[in-house]
Amino acid sequence: MKAHLDGIWSSVIPDGQSQPEDQEDFWADIVAEIGPEHGKGAEMFTFQVCSPKWLEHSLKSNDFIIDKNLIIIEKFDWQLIETAIKKLIARFECDTWEELAKEIDRYGEWEFHNYKEVSNYDNLTQH
After folding, report:
1. Judging by beta carbons within 10 Å of its beta carbon (0-12, 13-18, 19+), is residue 38 exposed, middle or buried?
2. Domains held by the chain: number
3. Number of alpha carbons in the 13 Å side-chain half-sphere of residue 24
4. Whole-prediction pTM
5. Cys-Cys with 92: which of 52, 55, 82, 103 at CB 3.0–4.6 Å?
6. Separation of alpha carbons 56 and 60, rounded Å
């Protein structure tokens, strides 16, 4: 099973068309809607996209930065972000959607990251 990118969007850049004010000094959360290549539906994976200049400014006020979901690009470009995510997900092929989503989750946080099904809800509500 392979993955398919249905689209990307950002809550920081709500219309999905415009650019950050400074295209070379920015940070944005980007949500990728990814699903099984020949299936219906998609799930959300969140990436943090920033420029080297933003990292430089951030490091001046912080001693370090830790982020597993980071994509670094020189200049903000919707097409480049989409291409980067497509290249990432093309690397993976798994037997099930859950296995595939867990692979992608290593790079962009899956909406079901650390999700655990509750097998007996009644035990949780009784004290």
Report:
1. exposed
2. 1
3. 0
4. 0.86
5. 103
6. 7
